[in-house]
Write a structure and sequence with these properties.
Belongs to the PEP-utilizing enzyme family. With 898 residues, this protein is α/β, with parallel strands linked by helices. The strands form six sheets. The protein has an eight-stranded mixed beta sheet. The protein has an eight-stranded parallel barrel with strand order 24-25-26-27-28-29-30-31, surrounded by six helices. The protein has a five-stranded antiparallel beta sheet with strand order 1-2-5-3-4.
Length: 898
Amino acid sequence: MARYVYDFTEGGRDMAGLLGGKGSNLAEMTRLGLPVPPGFTLTTEACRSVLDTGGEPPGLWEEVAGHLTDLETGSGRLLGQPDNPLLLSVRSGARFSMPGMMETILDIGLDDDSVHGLAKVSGNERFAWDSYRRLVQMFGTTVMGVDPSLFERALTQLKEVRGVPDDVHLDAEDLARLVETYKNVIHQETGERFPQSPVEQLRRAVLAVFASWNGERARLYRRREHIADDLGTAVNVQRMVFGNLGSDSGSGVAFTRDPATGARGLYGDYLPNAQGEDVVAGIRNTVPLTELKRLDPGAYGRLRAHMETLERHYRDLCDIEFTIERGTLWMLQTRVGKRTAEAAFVLGADLADEGLITADEGLARVSGEGLARLMFPRFDTAVTGDVLARGVPASPGAAVGAAVFDSAEAVRRAADGERVVLVRQETTPDDLPGMIAAQAVLTSRGGKTSHAAVVARGMGKVCVCGADELTVDTGARRCTAPDGTIVEEGTVLSVDGTAGTVYAGAVPLVDSAVMRYLEAGAGGRATTGVVDAVARALARADAVRRLEVRANADTPQDAVRARRFGAQGIGLCRTEHMFLGERRKLVEEMILAGTDAGRERALAALLPLQREDFTGILEAMEGLPVTIRLLDPPLHEFLPDRADLAVRIATAEARGEEPDAHDAELLAAVGRMHEENPMLGLRGVRLGLVVPGLVAMQVRALGEAVAQRLAAGGAPRAEIMVPLVGDVRELRLVREEVERVLAEVSDTSGVPVRCPVGTMIELPRAALTAGRIAEDAEFFSFGTNDLTQTTWGFSRDDVEAEFFSAYLDRGVFPVSPFETLDRDGVGRLVGIAVEEGRATRPDLTIGVCGEHGGDPDSVHFFHSAGLDYVSCSPFRVPVARLEAGRAALDLADAGDSR
């Protein structure tokens, strides 16, 4: 029979898949001898069984009963015991941290009788009733489905009647009255009474936590973080310890280093006379962790020692929850802490310097996505103006948007394309959709460990918490600054999550320090802090990566920028971009030419312009490969819009004027060339075979540019790429013309000119016949944008706006296949093409030049598929370099020798 329950003494951190992150880490702390309240964990397998079958797996509650008996024996108290009750917490604990997304129920075991026993044994009647009202409120909301606002309303009304600012000032009699009010709310809303059986409380609480795995906010968070839906959550049942027993008690959250910057030192929040939920909920402003040193030096010293133990044991930043019960310190949780991108890079460098991790481990702990965030602009501090409010810098970055005061409004406005800042007193897990939609989150309560701060850091959102100078009135949809300024909904705010400041209006942006360093290229100097950490991570990635990183660049300026960013060549130079602007007229002449001679004149005029462009790009990339793609889009794209032409002609006729003859000629040409589906029509290699002289002009321009650079003592490495090939015979015909023209250029210039000829693999048929295409192709470059379109049958320009949001919401795919490569479909075609292409030509060079070349997850796939290089936009080159290095480490860890 399967086993579903494990005591904390039986597990360890290597069992996260079974015991969840929280359960495995509680077991690990227990094994280390740290003061952990005893308890047990119901496994993720139990959760999956409950959710799959709708019932409890055989033997589950017998196991729970056995562990409960052991817990009662060890505690010397019984669950439900009237005079000295054992109270339990029931907490979720998925394999991957999902802060606040699932449920917690505290103080299980209290009823109308045992609350008096708890008051007597604790000597604190207020504490007993406070614990009971928390249980009724949590149980009513989580287990019985009562609207939480009903409980909040009752609490608010009681505070108003008593004239007190918060619940700490309510006495025992007030709280006893509140318990009765809460129980009446439950009965009115559900028709049920709050259960007086502690065993029933426990059972229903466990099942409710299991069920919360499929709650709306948990599903939304998993989609956002790409966490699988079939993992399930563990449930941890633990003996309660109490931080709300008076001034010598309290709860806190601590980090072994600053999760926002990575700086050394202890960081966190402490709340005297409070339970842990009060800290993370942000309903009361906390004090800094350093204040605990004054309040309770002994507990502070023990906490610091335990934190040092955990950081050295986990070899990473640790996020810790703790409670002090009348001077006794208890460790309630630890996990590897979520951190900002800045903190991740700084920690990777610092921990390596301290010998806790290797340089490779430091590289593995950062990401290309994080590097991209650090490249985002920052506010120009020279022109920020007056500060509207200050708070805790919880998640760095700069964001500008219209103030909104609830999650639904944030989602609505963002869907309309508006940038928004979500302003709340404090966020709750139900605010997750609004946090995702917003550019930044601003709260008037809470600190670096509040719900808003933890979730925003995990998502890379700008966040300022605890701006208590702001008076936030969500009902009136406005907030008031300390100088009396009223911020109505829709007012533009600028939020600086690095400095913890908020400004009215839109503050200008400047490049980040990381971007300035990267822009400087080889001449840049890394300073201390995050810039130095980024430089070290990139240097390590460059040292270990196998994949080359090239850039997509169409101008000499783009090529220069790409080289500064570390590009090792150009993987895609799109020649159609050279036909725009004033040159469009020459393309029109070529299209409209009624004779061979007219077309040849237009091509002859284009040739020196193309040659000039190619020469500049080859010079900028001296000594590095430059892949020139022959003209790809349909020719009608170079003509005016059909509708615009028709309107101009109709307008002239309506005025009784003679329409412009050139307009009429262009409209006729557009009509002749009209295609129902131009992306699958006359474009790419088909153009080269149908339009005489087009390929010859482009190849001659490139050949002459290569000859010029060679004659000047340069080292050009030009390659010619033929787009949209579906059959080897297409490529063979074009290649014959390429070789003929290059031979003519060599004879005329007296300089031997040779350019390798390859093709883009962007059609499923090309991937499936790659072995034959490789007979005439010296290299492959996957055009994954078109390959994704033709594999899925998607027209990217249409479907993303039409139904992608529905597909993402309903889990058809976890992320757009145009952002991250579809491994199962498109990836399989890539694998087939690589295998069959190299079977024909073992020295075949293979790369990718679609947008996926700069996507972190896709880079890992291309590495494992055996590609030689990825090519992406210049600004994504540093990201691709970093991920190529991390991909090499992934395979090294897996024992792959590639």
